[in-house]
Write a structure and sequence with these properties.
It is built from 13 helices and 10 strands. The protein is an alpha/beta fold. The strands form 2 sheets. The chain has a 7-stranded mixed β-sheet with strand order 3-2-1-4-8-6-9, with helices on both faces. It has a 3-stranded mixed β-sheet with strand order 5-10-7. Strand 2, helix 3 and strand 3 form a beta-alpha-beta unit.
Length: 430
C-alpha cells in the first residue's frame, strides 16, 4: 500500500510558510517613505512593442498623450511585422496628435522573432540614438495608464539617484470568472510587491515601468534569450545595486481571458524564472544584494515556488493514497454509511477533538487564518473590491493551477523542451 505522508515533509512546508508570513507582517508595520512632488519634468520616451494589437493600441497611445505632464512625451511604436491594422491606427493618431509636446514615432520591423525583448530593444536603441530622453518607459500595448502616473513617477528619480526603475500596481480588467480570479491574484501580488519595496527587495519591472535611460547605457538592454525579459531586467537592476521603487498609481491591462492562454503565459513565466535563477543570476543569492539576496530570491522565489510545486505533488500523492485506502476497504467488505440520524453526538465530538489534536491540522488552520488576514490587508490597502467567494476559489483550485504551471515550466526548462510565447488578444469577430 501507498504509505501516508510523513511528518518530516509536512512541517518544513508549514515552517517556511509561517516564516514568510511573519517577514511580510514585520515589513507591513514599517513606516512608509514620503515622496516629494517633482520640481522638474524631463523629456520622456515611451516604447510600445506591438504585434497585431489593433484592439488596444489606440487606447494605450491616447492614455499616454493625455498624461497630466508638462514635459515632452515621445511615443515610439515598434511595429513587429503586424498583419492587422495596428500600424494604420498608430499612423492616424500621429497625424492627429503630433505637436511640440507630444510626438508619435513608428519604427517598423519586417520580420517578427516571436519574442518581445528584441522589439523592446529596437525601440530603446532608437531612443538612445535619436531622442536621448532622460526617462524611458517600456509599456505593453494592452496596458492603460492613468493620467497622473508619469508626473508622480518622475518624482522618485529626483529624490534618489540610486533608483533606476519605478513600477506601479497592475490591475487586470474584469469580465469573466477567470479574469476575476486573476484580479484577486494581482491585488494580492501588488500588495506583496509594495511590502518588498519597503524592504528594498522589490525585483519586478512589469508591463509598464519607468527607467532612467542612463541605466540602459550602463547595464545593457533586455535579455533577448529570456522567456521573462521583465523579471530578467529587474534582476539586472538589482545586480547593478540599483533600487526599484513602487508607485501606488494603478495601471490597468488586458489579462488572458481563457485558461489556454493563461496556461501558456504562466508556463512561460515559470520557465523564465528558473532560467534567471539557475543560469543568468545565481550570484544574486548573496548578502551583498541585501534583502533581495537573503530573502526574496532564496526564500520567496526559490523555496516558495519549490514548496508550491512540492505541495501539488503531495496533494496528488495524498489523493492516490486516499483512493487506494478507500478501494482496499471496499474490497475487504467495508461499506460506507450515510445514516446521519443515528450519529452519537459524543462520538462525533470525540472524532473532531482527535482530528484537531493533530498539530499539522492546527498549524494548517492557523496558516489559513494568516492568509485571510493578508487578504484583508491587501483589499483594504489597494482599495479594490474583491468578493470573498472569489478569494476562496483563488485560494484553493486557482493556486493549484498556478503550481501546475510552475511545475510544467520547471520541467520544460530542465529538459530544454520547446516553448511558445502564446498570444493574448482576441481577433475581431472571434
Amino acid at each position: 500500500m501507498i504509505p501516508a505522508l510523513p511528518e518530516w515533509i509536512v512541517y518544513p512546508i508549514l515552517f517556511v510558510g509561517f516564516f514568510m508570513a511573519f517577514f511580510y507582517l514585520i515589513v507591513f508595520l514599517k513606516k512608509e517613505e514620503k515622496i516629494p512632488k517633482a520640481t522638474r519634468f524631463p523629456d520622456v520616451s515611451f516604447v510600445i512593442p506591438v504585434r497585431n494589437a489593433e484592439i488596444c493600441i489606440e487606447r494605450c497611445i491616447l492614455d499616454i498623450i493625455k498624461q497630466d505632464y508638462p514635459g515632452k512625451i515621445n511615443i515610439v511604436v515598434v511595429n513587429d511585422a503586424s498583419t492587422d491594422t495596428t500600424r494604420e491606427i498608430a499612423k492616424r493618431l500621429a497625424g492627429k496628435y503630433n505637436s511640440s509636446k507630444r510626438r508619435i514615432i513608428i519604427v517598423d520591423r519586417k520580420k517578427s522573432q516571436g519574442k518581445k525583448a528584441p522589439v523592446l530593444n529596437e525601440g530603446i536603441r532608437y531612443v538612445l540614438k535619436n531622442l536621448k530622453t532622460e526617462i524611458t518607459c517600456p509599456i505593453d500595448a494592452d496596458t492603460f495608464i492613468t493620467k497622473n502616473v508619469l508626473i508622480n513617477g518622475v518624482s522618485y528619480f529626483e529624490k534618489d539617484e540610486r533608483i533606476a526603475a519605478v513600477i506601479t500596481p497592475l490591475i487586470p480588467m474584469q469580465t469573466n470568472f477567470l479574469l476575476r480570479l486573476q484580479y484577486v491574484e494581482y491585488v494580492m501580488s501588488n500588495f506583496f510587491r509594495e511590502l518588498l519595496g519597503k524592504a528594498n527587495a522589490l525585483s519586478s519591472t512589469p508591463a509598464f515601468t519607468l527607467f532612467r535611460t542612463s541605466f540602459f547605457k550602463e547595464a545593457g538592454l533586455y535579455n533577448e534569450h529570456s522567456w521573462t525579459e521583465d523579471f530578467d531586467m529587474a534582476l539586472k537592476v538589482k545586480a547593478n545595486l540599483y533600487r526599484i521603487a513602487y508607485l501606488k498609481d494603478k495601471v490597468y491591462f488586458i489579462a488572458p481571458e481563457n485558461l489556454k492562454k493563461l496556461r501558456v503565459e504562466r508556463v512561460r513565466w515559470g520557465h523564465g524564472t528558473f532560467q534567471a535563477l539557475f543560469k543568468d543570476y545565481p550570484y544574486l543569492l548573496s548578502p551583498k544584494y541585501g534583502a533581495t539576496g537573503t530573502f526574496f530570491l532564496p526564500v520567496t522565489v526559490f523555496v516558495g515556488i519549490g514548496l508550491l510545486m512540492i505541495s501539488l505533488l503531495l496533494l496528488i500523492y495524498g489523493f492516490f493514497h486516499w483512493a487506494e485506502l478507500f478501494i482496499h476497504n471496499l474490497i475487504v467488505g467495508w461499506k460506507p454509511s450515510f445514516n446521519i440520524g443515528h450519529l452519537d453526538l459524543n462520538t462525533v465530538l470525540f472524532q473532531v477533538s482527535v482530528f484537531l489534536s493533530d498539530s499539522r491540522v492546527l498549524l494548517g488552520i492557523f496558516g489559513i487564518l494568516i492568509s485571510v488576514i493578508f487578504f484583508v490587508f491587501a483589499r483594504n490597502y489597494s482599495k479594490e473590491r474583491i468578493r470573498l467567494i472569489d478569494y476562496l476559489i483563488f485560494f484553493v483550485p486557482y493556486v493549484w493551477f498556478l503550481a501546475y504551471t510552475q511545475l510544467e515550466g520547471f520541467i520544460k526548462y530542465v529538459f530544454k523542451m520547446k516553448m511558445t510565447w502564446g498570444y493574448m488578444h482576441k481577433k475581431h469577430g472571434k
